[in-house]
Structures are given as structure tokens and as C-alpha cells.
Amino acid sequence: MEIVRTVTQLKSHAEQARKQGLTIGLVPTMGALHAGHLSLIERARRENDVVFVSVFVNPSQFNNPEDLRTYPRTEEADCALLTKAGVNYAFIPTPDEIYPEPDTRVFDLGSVADVMEGAMRPGHFNGVAQIVSKLFAWVNPTRAYFGEKDFQQIAVIRRMAQLEHFDDLTIVACPIVREKDGLALSSRNVRLSPENRQKAPEIHRILEKSRQMRANGNTVADTIKYVTDAINAIDCMEVEYYQIVNPITMQPINSWEEVPEATGCITVYCGDVRLIDNITYHSKQ
């Protein structure tokens, strides 16, 4: 594996691969890699000739300076994992390399970015669009891979790709990878205290239990109330939002009949660690 530090090197390697007629897989990450990231890389390797992985904690998508400061950075361990995973190029730049000048672009991301994370973290999705659009332009990948834990983010990236005319790019959404106890893998999980780490899997357990409510004829509002109340009843946990949405538009639904499948998206503070997860409500359980 080759570690690439500059945009010039990155573009050169990608252009060389394209000239050889090779397909390119891109996996954008913020580092602190775990098995969820590795599942994206494994799929990228299966489906492409060359794999690029970016490792960059992007400051423009953090609206909370403390969250940016405490976000885990583990470059040495990340490089060891990437090498073992068979990655061809790891792009690990500095912020100045990515943003030699401030990126003042504002993307018209539309309604998919207005709700949930977009409402709670103003500017977050515009920052995501800035960094991902740069990576797409520099690497010009055949396919780019993203985890469905960040469910709304994938819709935002699809919208950005449409706006920026990345017409030949396939955006691949990959399933959530979980610990054995159900907790969705996240780089932020390492910040959980031992006690809170024991309680965090309750988020997924309660979401799973709520699936039965649709099958039993409970309303969307009933289901939202059940999930919110059950999680808030756990010491150390506080729901920031729980919304059940149309998985295409990201807009909240009022009744199950509006869509054949709905997605429940949740953000929970477990202590001071912000965890996100989601679940699908099928029309037939």
C-alpha cells in the first residue's frame, strides 16, 4: 500500500489507473477505522481493480468544535488495517492540503438535507458535500462506498453527485455492521465509558422491538413515542430525535400507508457521546 499525502499525487495515481483501463473504488473515511469500514473496503476490492481510501477528519462538516477536537485520530493503526485489507492507496492529507483556501461553495442539497441531521447540525451536510465532491473530482472513481449507518448522508451525497454531474459514478450503499450485542459500529464508540458501552446496545434492541408495532397496527406516532420513551428511560441516554421517514425523500411520514418501507432514524446521546442508528420498517413483518 502506498500512502499519498498530496492532491497532486492522488490525481496522478488515479489518472494512471484510468489510462490503464482499470476500475477504481473509493472509500472516503475519517479514520479511526473499524470492521464497518473494512466491510466497505472488502466490497470495493471485490468490485474494482484499484482501491483508494481517504483518511481525513474534515473540519468543515463539524459544527461543534469540541466534537472535532475529540474525534479519534489513529493514523498508525489505520494504516496497518488498510495494508492488511489490501488497499492500493491511502490518501492521508492535512487540512491545509485539502483547503489551501476556504471552500465557500454552498450546495443546493434540497429537502433531503433539511431534516434530522441537517436540522440538528447546521452546515454539516454542506461540509460533507464539499469534501466528498473534492474527492470525487480528484479520483474520478468508478464506484464510491458509504455505510448505511449514515443513512441520510447517502441521500445527500447522491444529491450532490447529481448537482455536480458525476454521472458515470455509482454510489454504493453498504449495510450497517454491528457488534455481537447489536451496537452499530462507529468510530465514536471508543469514547463510551465502560458503563455506557454496556447500555448502548439498548438503542438497537428497542428499535428492533418497535418493528412489531407496525405489524400490530400501531400508528407511526405511537411507534415514535414508544422508542423515544423507552430509550429516555435508560439512565445516561437522551434521544435527540427519532423520526420515521420516507427513505428516498428523508421527509417524515404520518402513516405507514405512505410508503411500502419506512426508515426510522435516531440520534441518542449516551453520556456525552452522540450515537446514530436506523432501522427499516417493512410493510410485512
Write out the CATH superfamily name of the largest domain: HUPs
Measured by DSSP, the beta-strand proportion falls in 15-25%
Using the CA coordinates, give the radius of gyration: 19 Å
Order of helices and strands: EHEHEHHEHHHEHEHHHEEE
CATH architecture assignment of the largest domain: 3-Layer(aba) Sandwich
How many strands, what sense, and barrel or not for the largest sheet? 6 strands, parallel
The number of domains is: 2
Low-confidence stretches: none
**Structural classification:** alpha/beta
Structural descriptors:
Rossmann fold; six-stranded parallel β-sheet; 2 domains; 285 residues; 39% helix; Pantoate--beta-alanine Ligase, Chain: A,domain 2; alpha/beta; three-stranded antiparallel β-sheet
What does this protein structure show overall?
The chain is of the alpha/beta class and 285 residues long. The chain has 2 domains: 2-174, Rossmann fold, CATH 3.40.50; 187-279, Pantoate--beta-alanine Ligase, Chain: A,domain 2 (2-Layer Sandwich), CATH 3.30.1300.10. 39% of the residues lie in helices and 19% in strands. The protein is built from 11 helices and 9 strands. The protein has helices at 7-19, 35-47, 65-70, 75-84, 95-98, 117-120, 124-139, 151-163, 194-199, 202-215, 220-232, and strands at residues 2-4, 24-29, 50-55, 89-91, 143-147, 170-174, 237-245, 262-270, 273-281. The chain has a 6-stranded parallel β-sheet, with helices on both faces. The longest helix is centred in the middle third of the chain and has 16 residues, at 124-139.
